[in-house]
Amino acid sequence: MSIAITNKTIDKFLSFLIRLDNNxxxxxxxxxxxxxxxxxxxxxxxxxxxFGAWQDSKDTDEIIRDIRNSRIDNKNIxxx
Length: 80
Description:
- This protein has helices at about 5-15, 20-35, 60-70.
- By secondary structure, it is mainly alpha-helical.
- The mean pLDDT is about 80.
C-alpha cells in the first residue's frame, strides 16, 4: 500500500533528515531506492480491501456472545 504525502510534509521530514551525517543520508537513500525497485504493483490491492463488512461463519448471536465473554471484570483487578 502506498501513501501520498504533501510537499509540506516532505519539507518537515527533510528539515529533520538534513541534520543527519552523510553516511546516514547515504544509507537512507539506498533503503528508499531499494523500496522503489522492489515495490510490487498488485492490481488487486487497494485501500478498499482494508475496509468492508465483517466476514465470519458465526451468526450474530454467537459473535455478540463471544464479545461479551471476552470482557474483563474490572472489579477483580488487584491494586498495586
